[in-house]
Amino acid sequence: MPLRRHDDVHALLDSLRGEGFTIVGLEIDPAAVALGEYEPPANVALLLGDEVRGIAPDLRDRCDVLLEIPMHGTKTSLNVSVAAGIALHALRAA
What is the pLDDT confidence band of residue 51, given thresholds at 50, 70 and 90? Predict the structure, then answer.
């Protein structure tokens, strides 16, 4: 699975969208779709935030869709590396 790093995330998102990617943010949000219910297109760019603040509001607004990993019990979030692994597996397997 190809990865990219860029010093300006806004420019990177513009570039990816220009290449036909759907920008998908992984975030706990009232507007988010459950990961298991999402049918991804062929080209998806997954945006992750940090473990404390998540994805910044200005970057959330630039996502085509927000996804969340449904959780049960009292925990409300996952370690970002664990969440990334779950999301990448789900998006790749679809």
Answer: confident
